Amino acid sequence: MKVAKKVKDVEYAIRDITLYAKELERRGKEILYLNIGDPVLYDFRTPEHIKEAFISAIRSDKNYYPPSEGLEELREAIASLEKSKGMNVTASDVIITNGVSEAINMLMASIIDEGDEVLVPGPCYPPYSSYTRLFGGKPIEYMCNPTNKWMPDLDDLKSKINERTVAIVVINPNNPTGSIYDSSVLRAIADLASSHGIYLICDEIYDRIVFDDSFTSMASIAKDAPLIMLNGFSKVYLMTGWRLGYLCMNDKVSEELKKELPKLARLRISSNMPAQYAALEALRHSDHFINDMVSRLRARRDYIIKRLDNINGLEYVKPRGAFYIFPRIDLSIGRWSSDLEFVKDLLLETGVLTVNGSGFGKKYGSGHFRIVYLPTIDILEEAMNRLEGFMSKRSKD
Ligand code: PLP
Questions:
Q1: Other C-beta atoms lying within 10 Å of the C-beta of residue 196
Q2: Counting atoms of ligand 1 from 1, which one is nearest the CA of 240?
Q3: Atom 10 of ligand 1 has which residue's CA nearest to it?
Q4: Which single residue of 73, 244, 311, 338 could bond 275 by disulfide (Cβ 3.0 to 4.6 Å)?
Q5: Cβ distance 248 to 74 under 8 Å?
Q6: The predicted structure's pLDDT at residue 397
Q7: Nearest protein Cα to ligand 1, atom 7
Q8: Residues with CB under 6 A from ligand 1
Q9: What is the per-residue pLDDT for 303?
């Protein structure tokens, strides 16, 4: 029975690695899950007023198919939010999706033909590469430099643009590195996209989870580039399970794409309707709980780096946003042949589940691993004790 070749290249290391852990769990091992970036799985709760808006939508029978592109009110609210950041966009340029994940799917389906290239950050949140491959394209990793706060290397990026390049992807704040890009870097990337006439795809799903500095949105910078902004409600508004996000296109994006892409929205009928009412409520009243969430996350970030400072063989760049850290592993310590072997060895020996860096891109992710520091400090303490013990044991073996 046939399985399509293109599906075999699809990878999502963050969840693929869970298969190993589940097997160990079945055999009775206790697992500490530090692999999935879902705050609601830990002690962060969807705020009550957002839950109420969802429930009230259901109770008042808003249970039918909404318009494919999304509720008009929500599209208006998102357009005015993005406009307030500086983006030239109207409600008709906004499409509500079942998570940013679906926005990536629709977007890549709409812009990639066989052999086209998409420049993705190295390391990169995996769906950008996987969907590019699924639609016949080639993801090309551009270097983000750990010796420069994981900032994109502009010379490397420039050198990889050619006649097959259709888009540059920017993820800021970044998953998996936790870095936040300087406005001068954003400006240089926007200039490259506009001078080459290629799409600038910017994912800002962590835009309000920022610890030390202010955050500059690409919306305020890329006035001349064809900018496609992706954002959503999963992380900042703690609505992961409801699956709601959006994409919006500025006035430099071609009318042709604005006509063709919404066909994919119509094809899948619509996104979740009660969640769209909840999203409207989230956009109206949220500052209070976001501040609280960010200060709790900052304390967890500070705890994790304090512990990593004392572990031999792991080197990290201090994350400035999101809830990930991406340390480099001295593989010689445990004679591991790869970061995947390290992650599996750590899991088998200690039950601590992290994600292999190569799952975020072979070229620049290899040799690293990603830790999610969403759990409470007592769970992080247990995980760090196990990691520290593991590293010191392996260095003596
Ligand atoms: N974009 C980035 C950079 C992410 O890290 C994630 C989830 O981890 C997503 C998109 C997925 O978002 P959604 O839940 O809206 O599909």
A1: 15
A2: 14
A3: 100
A4: 244
A5: no
A6: 80
A7: 37
A8: 37, 99-101, 125, 171, 175, 203, 205, 232, 234, 240, 245
A9: 98
Say how far apart CA 145 and CA 148 lie, in whole Å.
5
The pLDDT value recorded for residue 189 is: 98
Q: Which residues of the chain have pLDDT under 50?
A: none
pLDDT at 175 (0 to 100) = 98
Percentage of the chain exceeding pLDDT 90: 93
DSSP assignment of 57-94 equals: HHHTT--S---TT--HHHHHHHHHHHHHHT----GGGE
Q: What gap in Å lies between CA 356 and CA 370, rounded to an integer?
A: 7
CA of 205 to the centre of ligand 1 (A): 7
Residue type at position 70: G
Q: How far is the CA of 193 from the centre of ligand 1 (A)?
A: 23
pTM of the model: 0.97
Which helix or strand (DSSP H or E) is residue 53 part of? helix 48-59
Taking the centre of ligand 1 as the mean of its atom positions, its distance from the CA of residue 38, in whole angstroms, is: 10
pLDDT at 274: 98
Atom of ligand 1 nearest to the CA of 234: 14
